[in-house]
Amino acid sequence: MSAPTRSVVDDALAADRLGAPSIIAFAMTAAAPLMTIGGVVTVGWATVSADTGITGYPLAFLLMAAVLGLFSIGYMAMSRRINNTGAFYSYVAQGAGKPAGVAAAFTAFTAYNMMQVGLYGIFGATMQAFITNKTGLAIDWWIYAITAWAIVALLGVLRVDINGTVLLVIVAAEVAVVIIFDTVFLANPAGGTISLSTFAPDNLFLPGIGAVAVTIFTAFVGFEAAAVYSEESRDRTRTVPVATYLALGLMVIFYAATAWAIAVTVGDDKLITTAATQQSEMMFTVAAERLGTSTVSDIGIILLITSVFAAMLSYHNTVARYTYALAREHVLPTRLARTGMRSGAPKNASILQSIIGITVIAGFAIAGGDPLVQLFFVTGMTGGFGVLLLVTATAIAVVCFFAKNGGTENIITRYLAPGAAAAILVAIVYAAIEAFPSLIGWKPTQPWWIFPAAFALIAALGVTWALILKTTRPGSYQRIGAANTPTPPPHHDSPVLTGDRA
């Protein structure tokens, strides 16, 4: 018997499945509050700060949030105009041209994949240390990583609202633990005095600030996720902006407050050395010391592990949707635009992301690489730099879009806010390239330049591919970056569109 013919509906994402709470969960878990402080910030203090002496991460969080808030004004205006799960890619394509859009798409695909697979490193390393400490069992990190990979691979092809529910539960537990830890840290300041020195500009604006900026920016990656789920959200013109601004606001509160609280309880003079010694276990070890019990610390580490898992799942969904958007518009092979008949999930794109993940885990395991420093921090920070490039390009594209198309939005929304954000982001990119050796823990004499140069090459490949499509497949070229206006479904009882929950 021949297979049934797939309709237009069969290759569409499931609409109206996500409300603001679920989308905020995707954003918050991509950023992963516990992982950000327990992994990104503490490892950043141990590596980047050891080289630069910069401890002012709390102030950096506030300033980066202000820049991203400016960026979001124009970004949300674009989301009201363009409904496309490709988000950054489609906005750049419509604002700066289709070749630039494909360059952005290739950059997004690479950067988000690097951030996603990098998380397997911290998951495996943290699980290994925790289990060995509690049971004495010496199990390789990559076994834990592969276990997590298998679960993410399964969830990635299921309904997006199931993923959203899982993430909501995890992020709620994270928030509770962060509040408890912050309260304990601030109640036990080093020297008996609460210090505000980590908010002082003198502890931030030092040589190497570009490396810190990328580290801090990476912590916020995920705030932009709402637009990625616009095709699957309910009332996107309201849900997407609400989710974006709330996620950004919650992130900066948790990040700045928790980084400051840790600095207060550890002491400014011991912050870098303590981080270098304890790394990703620093926050939990300090909490156990202040509380006089390891129970809360153990709970915190378990939630760090679930936080990393949630971030993996969130990034996996984001990467799959970017891949789906590119395939749907014929930039990538169209088979990658296949969605599940009942789940509405981008099935083939999700499978591709899983293949990339297992390949990287296996490669690091065979090579004997360091899962925490090399896989998590270096790979993740390089991916974060790629997303920084993407956000910068999008800010510029927003200005270009409104210059070409006009609109009813005020001048602040169309030009001033995105223009100011673009100028600041360009400066951050320049500073980041200058400080790239510090970012990845390499010496200036080592070939650190291959990482930023790789993104330039990837963008050039995107432009080249767009021009090839323009010549050889003009129909496909015209689809690049288009808003999603799906054909009315021929079968109105399709489980993808009717909201059937079976």
Indicate the topology.
Blueprint: H1 20-31, H2 33-52, H3 57-81, H4 88-96, H5 98-135, H6 141-155, H7 160-187, H8 209-220, H9 225-228, H10 236-266, H11 271-278, H12 282-291, H13 295-328, H14 347-367, H15 371-405, H16 411-434, H17 436-440, H18 450-472, H19 474-479
Main location: membrane
Membrane topology: Multi-pass membrane protein
Keywords: Cell membrane, Membrane, Transmembrane, Transmembrane helix
CATH class label: Mainly Alpha
CATH homology superfamily: Amino acid/polyamine transporter I
Number of E-type strands = 0
Number of domains: 1
In the CATH hierarchy, what is the architecture at level 2?
A: Up-down Bundle
Output the helix-strand order.
HHHHHHHHHHHHHHHHHHH
What is the helical fraction, as a range of percent? over 70%
Report the C-alpha radius of gyration, rounded.
22 Å
Q: How many helices in DSSP terms?
A: 19
Main beta sheet: none
And the CATH topology?
Amino acid/polyamine transporter I
pLDDT < 50 stretches = 1-16, 485-502
> Based on CA inertia axes, which overall geometry fits?
globular
Subcellular location: Cell membrane
Biased composition (Basic and acidic residues): 490-502
Membrane topology: Multi-pass membrane protein
Region (Disordered): 479-502
